Amino acid sequence: MRPGWxxxxxxxxxxxxxxxxxxxxPDLSDMLAELLAExxxxxxxxxxxxxxxxxxxxxxxxxxxxxxxxxAVEGVDLVRRLRGRGVVAPALVLTARGTVAxxxxxxxxxxxxxxxxxxxxxxxxxxxxxxxxxxxLGADAAELSVGSRRFxxxxxxxxxGDAEVILSRREGLLLETLARRPRQVFTxxxxxxxxxxxxxxxxxxxxxxxxxxxxxxxxxxxxxxGVGYRLGSP
Length: 234
Ligand code: CA
What we know:
Bound molecules: calcium ion
Order of helices and strands: EHEHEHEHEHEEEEHHHEE
CATH class of the largest domain: Alpha Beta
Strand content: 15-25%
């Protein structure tokens, strides 16, 4: 574990992995929530698509489990909307239907996997572990893209052709957090949680965004008004 980071929930799946379960069937959602919690997931349940959309956008998740048939916002549409807003957590869609067309539609919407009801719980657990592992494959990347530049993570160094900029450890952690999820909008609180020491306040996030912009250009970090920050797209 790197200093300043919380225990990476994905390194040893599924312990502590933040899972959003969007399922309107109360019996099934209660049963799944209890079972997933026993397996070590930090489970939050939304009972309709609107609540799922809201929670999906305002908090960070390691994995999403979304029922297809939902009131308010239907499951595949929910995944599509979350992807459109930059949510990149892997998603597994639960569906009563299992035709090839349904599967393709779900995957086209941005879901990574798909399970037909009724399913064996062990099958669900295995699929979730696989999703978390797959999602984690990119997490040890030694280099990340920052626009047209390369960020050498271990050296806190941003390379742009022949030019390079050295970042402080804290600047590097902040940039790394943003660059690992380039489409995700992070709140200040999330960034504080992921890239800062516990003693600091949300104001520190603004300060280090300012430092990053001063070193790398204003467009490096985008302000999303009323929400927070994400990696810029120069
Ligand atoms: Ca349903």
